[in-house]
Amino acid sequence: MTNATDQVSIRRKMGRLAPVLPALIVSVAAAIAFILFPYDLAFLTRIVIMMIFVLSFDLILGYAGIATLGHAAMYGCGAYAAGLVSLHLASDPLIGLLAGAVAGALIAWISGCVLLRAQGVALLMISIAVTMVLQETASQARWLTGGADGLAGITVSPLLGMFEFDFVGQVAFVYSVCILIAVLIFCCILASSPFGLALRGIEGSASRMRAIGTPVYRRKVTVYVIAGAIAGIAGALAAQVTGLVGIEVFNFSLSADVMVMLIVGGAGRLYGALVGTLVFMVVHHIAAGIDPFNWLFVIGFMLLIIVFALPKGLISLPDRLVALLRRKP
Amino acid sequence: MTSGLAVHGLSKNFGGLQVARNLTLSLPNGARTALIGPNGAGKTTFANLLTGVLKPTSGTILLNGKSVGKMSESERVRAGIAKTFQITNLFRDLTVRENIRLPILERERRTNKVFCHSDGIPELECEIFQLLEDLALTPLADKPVRGLAYGQQRLVELALTLALKPKVLILDEPAAGVPSTESHLIVQAIKRLPADLSVLIIEHDMQLVFEVANRIIVLVNGAILLDGTPQEVISNREVRELYLGADHG
């Protein structure tokens, strides 16, 4: 029994340190990128925002096993909410982020209560339908959203009253990285919590989870709302950084891209979301620069190779290499 | 108030097909009852009716005198009715320890907690340690379940259900698919179950049934044919012809 207590004590100490490591890695990587690519900060900021968005999707697909193609709904609502708050209520960026999180969580709760009763193809279809309805609503409500022209002229006041958003995008980049680190730490804590373990259980066998007394539907709605809030934050960041929100934020392709980024990186491990987003967006950027008409070919080819060679994504590459080396005499 | 599980007039129809017919039985605390019957007799359906996977067409289910018939599957588990699956249903990517940790966290109503570590609760970890010891699973504790032999997986299945500390335990063919060299592990585990636990064992393996049960219910076409001691079942001509084979005994 003492042995068990000792093990728990060691694990608890390790557990406390666990969220610090990814935060450290992201901070160092961001600092290096900031120094090496000072004129590409707008692109780097887009990558960071997408990382937040993909992290939120990892919570629902990678951990809870909920496959949807409508994650843009929460991102879009977050973007519109932050844009509207900035234009009509308060220009403080943190208030905009809060509005984005609330909007994302709210739409996730409303839609999640319906779509999480479905499974498989029906779930995919309903999630697409929710996003299409929201896109059409945004398009029709011109008085509020600007319709097809979108919300323009979004400006935010200096961050914490001190840091003005500059033309080069330094403040926007640092601001986005800070939010990414905060989201990553939260996701790490969630993943290692009893709630995170329950999500992995649901992903593994929902019927077994019911048989141990878990209210599976309630847990799914909860994680969907949490992921919705994070996606809303990503949308709000995008609105604040670009100063514009168009109805494209609800595009089906955005939801599909998020899924591809997660599959490329590896679902259910958080780091996979970061790696997948980075690789996808850099390859996309370079391929589109070389051939603006056929860049999709490169993305498709990359996805094919990864799905066949590394079904668990790029994040599983080190494990695979170690396994291969061990197999050789 | 009746202690244990009491079922009265339980029936289930799928359209015109009646799969459970007016089933009445009781499982008092400490019962070791086996439910036997030929394939298609309705044994698993009966288990599903008790656990809430299926809703009965009519009848009542009482646990310690309180009706649980309208409760959902997860509510019945929380009330104290737990089951093992006929085909092993585990969290294959999780380790044995994590598999056992999950039902304990659920029993303690902790799976909605976000701001604490899942393995950071010493008293629960000690309980996991004890369960692993009891079922001789300690050497496998940190191995993923997918890599275990089938007999070991059946033990994990049992550990997972025992972790819920149920009042009534339904074992749906606990030895199904287990090689004969490993079935003694299952028998030993069942024999070591807490004395006050009501156990209903659905099983085809008659050797196992006679070894662990002190009461046997024979189910045929969704209805109870006989409810008695192992000796009464063996000596019943109809049962021998229908299920055990005319030469048994």
UniProtKB/TrEMBL annotation, chain A:
Annotated transmembrane regions: 17-37, 43-65, 72-89, 95-116, 172-200, 221-247, 259-283, 295-315
Domain of life: Bacteria
Keyword Membrane: yes
Taxonomy of the source species: Bacteria, Pseudomonadati, Pseudomonadota, Alphaproteobacteria, Hyphomicrobiales
One Pfam family from the record: BPD_transp_2
Topological relation to the membrane, as annotated: Multi-pass membrane protein
Principal place of residence: membrane
CDD domains in the cross-refs: TM_PBP1_LivM_like (cd06581)
Keyword entries, A-Z: Cell membrane, Membrane, Transmembrane, Transmembrane helix
Key word rRNA-binding present: no
Chain segments annotated as coiled-coil in the UniProt record: none
Protein name: Branched-chain amino acid transport system permease protein
Location within or outside the cell: Cell membrane
UniProtKB/TrEMBL annotation, chain B:
Keyword vocabulary terms for this entry: ATP-binding, Nucleotide-binding, Transport
Record SUPFAM superfamilies: P-loop containing nucleoside triphosphate hydrolases (SSF52540)
Gene3D superfamilies for this protein: P-loop containing nucleotide triphosphate hydrolases
Homology family: Belongs to the ABC transporter superfamily.
Keyword Transmembrane helix set for record: no
Molecular function (Gene Ontology), one example: ATP binding
Lineage: Bacteria, Pseudomonadati, Pseudomonadota, Alphaproteobacteria, Hyphomicrobiales
Domain ABC transporter: 5-246
The protein, known as: Branched-chain amino acid transport system ATP-binding protein
